[in-house]
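WARN no homologs supplied; continuing
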Amino acid sequence: MARVLITGMSGTGKSTVLGELAARGYRTVDTDYDEWTDGRGGPWDATRMTELLATESTVVVSGTTENQSRFYDRFEHVVLLSAPVDVLIDRVRRRSNNPYGHSVEHQQQIRRHLADVEPLLRRGATVEMDAQVPVDQLADAISRLAGEPS
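OK structure emitted
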C-alpha cells in the first residue's frame, strides 16, 4: 500500500493513466478537477490534501502545481511522466477534453515550462517514466509502486 503522486507537464498523460488506474480499482484524485486548486492552476488546497494523505493509505494523485513539493514527504513515490516537447505539443493540440494547449500562446508556455519547471519536478521525483510508453504499461508500473488497491 502506498500513496503515489503522478506529476509532469501538460500532455504527458497524467489524467489518462489515472483513469486506467481508477478502472483497476485504485482510489485516484485528479487535482485538476473537483476544486483541489483555485481553478486557475494555483496551489493545491493544503488542508484538503493534508487530510487526504492522512486518511488514505493507498491513493494515486495526479497533478502539477506550485506547492506540491510541500507534500512529497507524505508520498511513498513521486512519479514524473516525461516526453519530448514535440510529443507534448502534439498531444495537447489534439485532445478534446481540455482546451489548454490548443493556442500558440499555450504551446509556447508548455515549452517554457518544460525548460523551467520540469527540472524542478525531476529533482523531487523518486521515479521517472517515459510518457511515450503505452498507458497500460505505465499503469502496470505505477501499480507495482502503489501495491494492491484497497
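The chain has a mean pLDDT of 93.
OK
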